[in-house]
Amino acid sequence: MYLTPQHILLAGATGLTGEHLLDRLLNEPTVTRVLAPSRRPLAEHPRLENPVGELQSLLPALEGPIDIAFCCLGTTIKQAGSQEAFRAVDLDMVVAFGKRARELGARHLLVISAVNADPESSIFYSRVKGEMEEALKLQGWPQLTIAQPSLLIGERQDQRFVEQLAAPIAKLIPGKYGGIEACNLARALWRLALEEQDGVRVVESDDLRRLGK
């Protein structure tokens, strides 16, 4: 069964994938309202509401109704400055966003996690992503879609040298470890948002690439 969501909540609209997703949402004729809080102002659009500030402080003031929520939040330990600061974004802020979206009436949350997310992992990054996934599952979502991409490929404002080198190779890797263009991930997320499928759905890079073509 396919849905026609009208009221969208989006976190991470200034990020690599979030920018592509916001552009797609604002060009969808069925979408009447996109609520996208962000730290810096977004380009004005008649169907965009853009509260500006720190997300944690903006969440209580957000108003519904919301049909579907997208969470494209994410950072790196280098950007965050410490493991604690990384957890504050990739775990605490994501979980707080999910809680508020549910309070506003959203029935479907789509969140970007990462390949090999596992709360028992010995790798800090994968462990935090796994803890985030488990926390969201406890929020009682009628529909929760967890995207687990591998390397995200695209033009970043803070271009990362290692990722630039890895991108051409990552595109050639088959299966769930293959890289994915951020624009294709955004397209896949929108397609997944249109599908009604109760419970938790985990979608890995290979399926995300297929959906995003």
Task: Tell me which CATH architecture applies here.
Answer: 3-Layer(aba) Sandwich
| Helix amount | 25-40%
Largest sheet features: 7 strands, parallel
Mean of residue pLDDT values: 90
N/C terminus separation: 21 Å
Question: What is the domain total for the residues?
Answer: 1
**CATH class category label:** Alpha Beta
CATH topology: Rossmann fold
Specify the overall morphology: globular
- List low-pLDDT spans: none
Please give the count of helices: 8
Number of strands: 9
Major β-sheet strand ordering: 3-2-1-4-5-6-9
- Spell the H/E element sequence: EHEEHEHHEHEEHEHEH
Protein name: NAD(P)-binding domain-containing protein
Pfam families: NAD_binding_10 (PF13460)
InterPro entries: NAD(P)-bd_dom, NAD(P)-bd_dom_sf
Domain NAD(P)-binding: 12-133
What would you note in describing this structure?
The protein has one domain: Rossmann fold, CATH 3.40.50. The strands form two sheets. It has a seven-stranded parallel beta sheet, sandwiched between helices. Strands 7-8 form a two-stranded parallel sheet. The protein has helices spanning 16-26, 55-58, 77-80, 83-103, 124-137, 161-170, 182-193, 205-212, and strands at 7-11, 33-35, 48-49, 68-71, 108-112, 143-148, 152-153, 180-181, 199-204. By secondary structure, it is an alpha/beta fold. Helix 1 (16-26) crosses helix 7. The mean pLDDT is 90.
